[in-house]
């Protein structure tokens, strides 16, 4: 992806969030110059991978397959300084028919919440012992109500509705055509996008970036180390 495209999407995200009166934490607006001055007081942001996360999943077409995320709070599975925090909160932006590919998490249990905007469509499969798609029925909790679905069925979440996704449950999602962009919340166990994602098809989780202009904000994977003092 071109850096100019990433910058444009970040600006659009800020506008969309402001329209829905959702405010990001202060570090969301730290640019490269701000990060160059930050010492070890910001290590929790670095180590727990807080902040901007944007990907086209290697598709080369963000509008077709892509997702914008911002990790607001998170713990760490191995760093003892941050293991006291066993949870994660994210905000996600899904466009109409913009697909997040089929995947599961080996360890993470998550609630996906439709906070505002259009409708979210989620396709569900259990995983089998070979990490393929099972033909067994899928049981999930929708706002505390247990429901049974056929393998491959889609659940539609309207604003205010949520679904609990256990570990190793395959899911693929997108915003329903004609209903508008969706503002999603995610509440989960500690999140680690470097080790805990199992995509059904081979994809690129983190974008390859063409630097055609200066970054507006850094992605969480781009933070510089704390300067030596």
SSE topology sketch:
Layout: H1 3-19, H2 32-36, H3 43-47, E1 51-55, E2 67-74, E3 87-94, E4 100-105, E5 110-117, E6 120-126, E7 138-142, E8 145-149, E9 154-157, E10 162-165, E11 169-175, E12 182-189, E13 197-199
Antiparallel strand pairs: 1-2, 2-3, 3-12, 4-11, 4-13, 5-10, 5-12, 6-9, 6-11, 7-8
Report what the structure shows:
It is globular and about 55 Å long. The protein has a six-stranded antiparallel beta sheet, with helices on one face. Strands 9-6-11-4-13 form a five-stranded antiparallel beta sheet, with no helix packed on it. It is mostly beta strands and 229 residues long. The protein has three helices and 13 strands, in the order αααβββββββββββββ. The two termini are 35 Å apart. The model has no long low-confidence stretch (mean pLDDT 96).
Radius of gyration: 18 Å
Unreliable sequence segments: none
How large a portion of the residues is in β-strands, by DSSP E? 25-35%
Helix and strand run: HHHEEEEEEEEEEEEE
Order of strands across the main sheet: 1-2-3-12-5-10
Task: Count every beta strand, where a strand is a DSSP E run of 2 or more residues.
Answer: 13
- Given the helix and strand composition, which structural class is it? mainly beta
Distance between the ends: 35 Å
Helix content: 10-25%
Number of helices: 3
Give the biggest sheet: 6 strands, antiparallel
Broad shape: globular
- Average the pLDDT over all residues and give the rounded result: 96
């Amino acid at each position: 992806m071109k850096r100019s495209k990433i910058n444009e999407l970040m600006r659009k995200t800020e506008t969309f969030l402001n329209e829905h009166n959702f405010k990001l934490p202060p570090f969301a607006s730290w640019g490269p110059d701000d990060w160059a001055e930050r010492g070890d007081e910001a290590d929790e942001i670095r180590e727990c991978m807080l902040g901007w996360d944007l990907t086209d999943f290697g598709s080369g077409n963000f509008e077709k397959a892509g997702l914008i995320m911002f990790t607001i709070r998170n713990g760490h599975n191995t760093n003892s300084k941050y293991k006291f925090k066993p949870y994660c909160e994210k905000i996600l932006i899904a466009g109409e028919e913009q697909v997040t590919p089929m995947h599961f998490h080996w360890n993470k249990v998550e609630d996906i919440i439709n906070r505002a905007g259009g409708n979210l469509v989620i396709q569900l499969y259990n995983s089998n012992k070979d990490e393929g798609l099972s033909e067994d029925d899928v049981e999930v909790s929708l706002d505390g109500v247990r429901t049974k679905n056929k393998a491959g069925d889609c659940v539609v979440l309207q604003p205010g509705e949520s679904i609990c996704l256990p570990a190793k449950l395959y899911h693929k999602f997108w915003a329903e055509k004609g209903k508008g962009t969706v503002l999603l919340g995610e509440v989960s166990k500690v999140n680690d996008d470097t080790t805990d994602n199992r995509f059904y098809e081979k994809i690129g989780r983190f974008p390859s970036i063409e630097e055609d202009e200066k970054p507006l904000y850094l992605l969480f994977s781009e933070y510089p180390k704390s300067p030596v003092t």
